[in-house]
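Title: Prediction job returns without error message
Component: structure pipeline
Severity: low
Priority: P3
Assignee: unassigned

Description:
Job completed but the reporter wants confirmation the result is attached to the right record. Sequence as submitted:
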Amino acid sequence: ERSWLSDLDWAIQNLPGSSSSLPSLDALSTQSITALSKAVTHSTMSSLQLFIDQSPRLALLQNRLEPHKDGTKSRPVCSLRHYLTLVRSPDHRVTLTKLLCGDLTPVTFHASPASAPPLPECDHQTKSCRACHLSHQPESPQHVLLECRSIPELVDLRNSFLTRMSLHFPLPHSLRFDHASATHYLKLFVFNWDSVVETAKFIHEGISLWRSYLKDDRATTTDDEDEEV
């Protein structure tokens, strides 16, 4: 018979990764409901972690360590993340959250922020950085923020930021990164209690410069096409 209880049982059985179901009415008790709650929580968290690990758009969330005030780190699947309380600027906080959750890709960036594998040759034309052009670099957040050297204002912003970060972390002497190291250091800067505020500001300002470049580049391209017509 259809009831709210049967609806609840259906919802529990159809949760991602769930193998649980509501106990029969005769077996309902505080202990059985507590056990069910723990099982549902475990299966839900495991399913969410698997989704994060397998998503090419969530490379910046994979293998992350959440810092704590006492200097320790842990790997909670869900928690009140440190950047949500430490980054006081709403704009910086929103931009950082969107970046980590893959919400800026591919709307802002051509390439997914996946750390591997390399792009197939046939994809380079549509996925390569629009500022680097012939360098065939995948246009990911990591590349734009820490690698691309084709936008002077962004390079200056990056160098100033990296100089401050060098006070917290040992960085390559050249301050040059490849895709793998850019991913590593971007995650290092974000998931650190002492550097996340400055990193969020840098990310917000860097992406603002990138969007401004894309807007100007599109306008230039349109003007050139009009002249050809």
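Comment from assignee: result matches the submitted record. Strands lie at 66-67, 73-74.
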